């Protein structure tokens, strides 16, 4: 799907109705904007965290502990910020 919107003098865009309908956007929803290779990408943030429960199925090793989740988040941030060589170091990041 392709659509266009015109930027107003106040820096506002109106998302075309067919796009809003397709993405189930409603007033008050948040859209995260990212620039990738000089392209503007808008990602709707209209899902509640609870809506994602079970989305990926059951974890292969069973439910994770808070400590395991914390370590996974630290590793992901370290990998993103410092590069792949920092992944897995957890406490070092």
UniProtKB/TrEMBL annotation:
<dbReference type="GO" id="GO:0003677">
    <property type="term" value="F:DNA binding"/>
</dbReference>
<dbReference type="InterPro" id="IPR037914">
    <property type="entry name" value="SpoVT-AbrB_sf"/>
</dbReference>
<dbReference type="InterPro" id="IPR007159">
    <property type="entry name" value="SpoVT-AbrB_dom"/>
</dbReference>
<keyword id="KW-0238">DNA-binding</keyword>
<dbReference type="Pfam" id="PF04014">
    <property type="entry name" value="MazE_antitoxin"/>
</dbReference>
<feature type="domain" description="SpoVT-AbrB">
    <location>
        <begin position="2"/>
        <end position="47"/>
    </location>
</feature>
<protein>
    <submittedName>
        <fullName>AbrB/MazE/SpoVT family DNA-binding domain-containing protein</fullName>
    </submittedName>
</protein>
